[in-house]
Structures are given as C-alpha cells and as structure tokens.
Amino acid sequence: MSSELPFDDLRFTAALRAERTVWAIASRAFSRILNCVANAQEVRAMRLFSKRALATIMLILPLAGAFAEQNMIEDFEFQPEKRWQFIGDSVMGGVSTGQVEFARENGKSYARMTGRVSTANNGGFVQFRMDLPAPLPKDAAGVRLIARGNEQRYFVHLRTSGTVLPWQYYQAGFEVSGVWAEIRLPFTGFNASGRLLRVSPRPESVKSVGIVAFGRDHDAEIEVREVSYY
C-alpha cells in the first residue's frame, strides 16, 4: 500500500502546520506583549507607590511636629505679654529691679529678663511668671527649657494647687551660657520651699511656671525661647 497522502490531505496537513506555526509565533508575541504590559504596569505601580509614599510622609511630618508641639507650654508667639508677668521682690519690701521684654531673632520669638537682684531689705529675686492654661499630664517627667544668658545660675519656680501661701513654691536650679541650650529639670529634682509641702510636685497639680533670678546680689540677664514638658 502506498504511504503517500492524497494532494488534498497534503494541503490540509501543510495548512495545519502553518496554522500551528502562526499560532506559536502569535502566542510568543502575545506573551511578550503581556510581559511588557506587566512591566509597564509594575513601573507605573512603583511610581504610584512612590508618589503615595511621599504624600504619606508629607502628611506624617506635620503630624509628628504637631504631636511634639502638644508638649509645648510656651513658645512666646502671639502676644506673650498677655500671658507672662514680671514680679520683683518689691511686693515684700525688697529693692531688686528688672523687666521682661519679648523679642525675635532668626524667626524665633523669646523672652528676655534683665535686672539687678539685691538681697537688701530681705529681698533677693526677680522673675517672670505664667499661669498654665491647663493641667500637665500625670505622666509628665519634668520641665524643659531652651535658654541662654550671662553665665549665671537661675531657677524655675513651680506653684501648685498645694502652694497656698504666697512664699511657697518648688524650685530647681540650672546654669546658662551665651548660646541657646536645652535644659531638662525632672519634677523629682524640684525642692519644696518648706516642710508643709510634699517632697516633690505632682505634674497635674502645677498651676504656674516662673523663671527666676534668686538668692544673691547679681545682675540678671536670661533669655528663654521655649518652655515645655517632657
């Protein structure tokens, strides 16, 4: 028996092979197109992700700044003279003199207290003080300042709901130099002015904060840019 196929069968077989070849070529071409599309989509997706990540970061940064600013007690912006008052020992017969002014430098506002502290007549202090608008949180650890001055020792005085008498307070000392520096004063480091007070102040009981030149004859010059808690 002859093994040769009729012409019609040969033509069908050739057409089938050609069709398969075309489909194979088309399939490979389609796969390449899909790969290109996938790569393009991946690139677009990465670009979109990068844009969204950048947008998220830009949103988070101000929020982080806002969270940090929640600890701020005073940055001396927006009429600080309405919140702070200068107090000298003349209220108790002393002769110390001084003043507080508010200034601005390199885009930052700050308070400047200058004066002459005299221990004559049982005096010996000048200060500027602010009543807190709201209680501090119970878990606050201390008071934080950004300050500079004339290389003297100064103090922070805290009055609380327990300091009922005018001469009662809690006190912590700190040193300043001619450059701005951060100062941290833990509440456990504040000393009570008398035995009638508890050993250290409770953060939630603090009513006012004062920056004080105190206790000896000297010239006072201190500048404070920030008051906050930590």
Any overview of this molecule?
This protein has one helix spanning 7-69; strands spanning 72-74, 84-88, 97-105, 108-117, 125-131, 142-149, 153-160, 170-175, 181-186, 191-192, 206-214, 218-229. With 230 residues, the protein is an alpha+beta fold. Strands 1, 3, 4, 6, 9 and 12 form a 6-stranded antiparallel beta sheet that branches. A 6-stranded antiparallel beta sheet has the order 2-5-11-7-8-10, with no helix packed on it. The protein is globular.
Order of SSEs, N→C? HEEEEEEEEEEEE
**Count of runs of 4 or more consecutive helical residues:** 1
* Helical/strand content category: alpha+beta
**Proportion of strand residues:** 35-45%
Percentage of residues assigned to helices:
25-40%
Q: What integer value in Å does the Rg equal?
A: 38 Å
Mean pLDDT: 83
Q: Report the count of strand segments.
A: 12
Q: List low-confidence stretches.
A: 1-16, 63-68
Largest sheet: 6 strands, antiparallel
Termini separation comes to 103 Å
| Global shape | globular
Please summarize what this structure is.
The protein is an alpha+beta fold and 230 residues long.
Set out the fold topology.
Blueprint: H1 7-69, E1 72-74, E2 84-88, E3 97-105, E4 108-117, E5 125-131, E6 142-149, E7 153-160, E8 170-175, E9 181-186, E10 191-192, E11 206-214, E12 218-229
